[in-house]
Amino acid sequence: MHSDVPPHASAVTIALPAWAESAVDWERRYDSDEDKMRVAIALSRINVEQETGGPFGAAIFASETGRLVSIGVNSVVRLNSSTLHAEVVALMLAEQQLASFSLAAPGLSPHELVTSCEPCAMCLGATLWSGVKRLVCGATRSDATRLGFDEGPVFKASYEYLAHAGIEIAREVCRAEARAALELYRSRAGPIYNP
What we know:
Distance between the termini: 36 Å
Structural class: alpha/beta
Strand order of the largest sheet: 2-1-3-4-5
Radius of gyration: 16 Å
Order of helices and strands: HEEHEHEHHEH
Shape: globular
C-alpha cells in the first residue's frame, strides 16, 4: 500500500502564520526599546486574535542600526512542537536569514532579542547559545504563570548567568501592553499547553 506520509518523520518545517510577514514594517528603523517591544507585543496579540498560537511574540533586531531581522510567534500547538516558542522561532529564522548558527559570529554586528514576555527556562538557554548581546522583555514571569503557563526552572541566578556571559538585560518594557495580550488570550480561553 502506497502512502504520501513517510513511516518516520525525516524533516521539520517551521513557518510563520500567513499573516505574520505583513504584520510588521520591515523597512522601518526601530530606535527605542519601546518601539521594538511594540513589534513583539503586536505579534503576540495578532497571534491570539488569529488563533494561530499562544500569546507570545518576539523579534530580533540589529542593535546598531535598529533593523528588524526576524520575527517569531508562539507556534507550539499550530506546528505540534513543544520547542516552538516565539523566542526560539525568531532566533531560528534570524540565524537562517544571516546564514549563521550564531548571531555573534565574526563579521556580524550585535543583535538583540525582544520578547513580549520574560523567557521560560528553554528560551533563556536558547538566548544564551544564540549569540545575542541584549535581551529585552515585556510582561513578567508572574504575568504568564497567572494564566497557567509553567515557565520552568528560571531563577535570579539564571539572569545573573546571562549577564555574566555579556548579555545586557532590560525587563518590564511596556509591561502593561504586553500583559494585555496575555489577558486577551485568557479571556478567549486559549489552550494552556504545558504538559
